[in-house]
Amino acid sequence: MGTQGHGTFPYRSVDIPDAKIRFAFSPNDYITVINRYSNNRAASGGFDYFYVDIKDWGGALPGHTIRLGKHKIDIGVETWTDNPVESIVVTNAVSHVSGYDEGINLRGPLTRGRLPWTYSIELLNGTQGFTMSAQDITIGAKVGGLVSDRLYLAISAIRTGNLVKRDGTLDKPDLNIAEVFDPPAGAMGWRRSIWEIDLRYNYGKEGIKSIVGSQPDVPWQAAVAFGRLVDDADGAPDRKGSFGFAEVLLNLSPRTYLGLRYSQMNLEDGATAKLGGSPVAVREYRRYSLGVGYRLSHLTHLKTEYTINDAKGGSSKPELNQFAVGVATKF
């Protein structure tokens, strides 16, 4: 990996940006325990998530699941493939919404048949670590399904409680957007709200299709997303903005594919933040990603990408363009 002077890898680097080991244990037909260790950059210090799935509500409600523990927050769709292995390119959208939190997730079918729809409801701790927010919990919901044989639509929304610790100091959320976790400047308390609409074509009945492990069974697939962020501050101006992305995957041959993505995050009313990991606070960040992949096998791909990162509205204009090449595999 290599970047321009203000990026993460100005002198080039050989890295392991994403490596996960997932363990599953099912003592019976209804209970599954999932533990996934993160070995990013070959470290081995903790786990991403650790939860229990109670399928069919223990037999009381077929098709529906209760998820208890620390799990991936189910808001948006990109979050389920936001890594160099499963994404159509190496990087994520600059505005991607993601996070892991402790709590309860209820999920299951809303409708069945040729065009199925599903629901997901989140009741979460909301704050980083295992410390409980002094006020309220985080509540989120998502509905999604097929509107035609190939077109998938999802609508998501989430709102945290007041991100203040019991000692009165400000806390940070587990819910990430554009790598921004800090509260608005001068806030005495704050809450984060996000909503997102996703429209995806040829991504399957659940809108999710990992590039590694899937078949090149369609000539192309495309996705667009748009959303809004409101960091509601007490005693200071709110931080508001819009975000979104558009991506296309073209299967040039059974082995070769081209991935294109444009993503952006814009803050309003003069607000700035270190969007997308920018070294300086900026108002606007746009990312243009061009990737080429080659299927060495069904589960191992050679991937390369050139990324143009355009950040504006800060005290300076950082140079953040990036080139990456690597091998992605699942087993």
Question: In words, what does this structure look like?
Answer:
The structure is a single chain. The chain has 331 residues and is an all-beta fold. It has one domain (2-248). The strands form two sheets. It has a 16-stranded antiparallel beta sheet, with no helix packed on it. A two-stranded antiparallel ribbon has the order 6-11. Helix content is 0%, strand content 49%. The chain contains no helices and 18 strands. The protein is globular. A hairpin with a 4-residue loop joins β9 (138-146) and β10 (151-159).
Uncertain segments are: none
Count up the domains: 1
Shape: globular
Strand order of the largest sheet: 1-18-17-16-15-14-13-12-10-9-8-7-5-4-3-2
Radius of gyration: 20 Å
N-to-C span: 24 Å
Share of helix, binned: under 10%
Strand content: over 45%
Helix-strand sequence: EEEEEEEEEEEEEEEEEE
Report the major sheet.
16 strands, antiparallel
Count the DSSP helices: 0
The computed structural class is mainly beta
* Global mean pLDDT: 91
- How many strand elements? 18
Brief sketch in words of this structure:
With 331 residues, the protein is an all-beta fold. It contains no helices and 18 strands.
List the helices and strands and how they pair.
Elements: E1 2-3, E2 20-25, E3 31-38, E4 46-55, E5 65-72, E6 97-98, E7 100-111, E8 117-124, E9 138-146, E10 151-159, E11 176-177, E12 189-201, E13 220-234, E14 239-251, E15 256-267, E16 284-295, E17 300-312, E18 322-329
Antiparallel strand pairs: 1-18, 2-3, 3-4, 4-5, 5-7, 6-11, 7-8, 8-9, 9-10, 10-12, 12-13, 13-14, 14-15, 15-16, 16-17, 17-18
